[in-house]
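Researcher: Structure for this, please.
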Amino acid sequence: MELLLNEKSLDGQFTNLDDFYEVLPVMSSNLRILRKYGIPLLKHSSLYNRKITPSLTILDLQNSRGKIAPVHRDKVRKWKRELSSLAMSPPFWDDEWPCSSNSMEEAARRGTDVLSFPHEEYQDTVVPVLYQGRSVLVKSAVTKEYLLELLLEKKTIPIIDYLKSRYSDGKIRMGLTKNGIESVLELEKKEIWELCAALDRFEHETWQEIGKDRFFNYKSYQPPSKKKNYFDESICDRKIDKFRCGQHSKVRCFGYRQENLFYILAVERDHSISDTG
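Model: Predicted structure, token format:
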């Protein structure tokens, strides 16, 4: 699998460089994901000349044109290296022949998708691209979540890696046990998206809201004895809690809270764990 970096998603849409600096960590996170899974990111050789603001290009940023607020300096130094690598290092898809006039058309020609900078036209969406007289649908990923979904659908990453990557910097963490990994693998596709929707909701509520939210029915896991405890002895001294992924959902999550984080240890779809506590 390969993706193309959508140079059309830089067309001077940022009012100033500070706005651009704020979105750089998102692109950095996406690039780390692609490197981790060995997915090539093909670029157009004109990337250096694409505009960030109406008056400044990536080349201008590389040459330090424009004022850089002290709060952004470390971030910009890091990103000068990153952007330089993106803009100047191969692979460039337009070095090959035949090729199209831009990355969206080239993605349509190759039957692949694109990674974009934040842009209203390309923000986590499916774009119909006219290629050889027919409309070809090209997915454009901006956020980490959308990129991971795209890679999962392409079967480029396994579901466990998808969940661990998607829930790595918020309230939810995947501390899955060996049995817990097997429990996730049992989920059907519909249940996976049901799980993700619930986890996204969980991350955006306060602990007080979670405790009162009937959607989750958050409560303690209380097996009648150690023998009937689903979780092994290495973690059985922790207070294990559980919550469901919707009022009418069969999917439930089990784990423990540590300060403001919740570590998911297992997921069930058949009450096999719930029936013991």
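Researcher: Any notable elements?
Model: The two ends are 44 Å apart (CA to CA). The mean pLDDT is 87.
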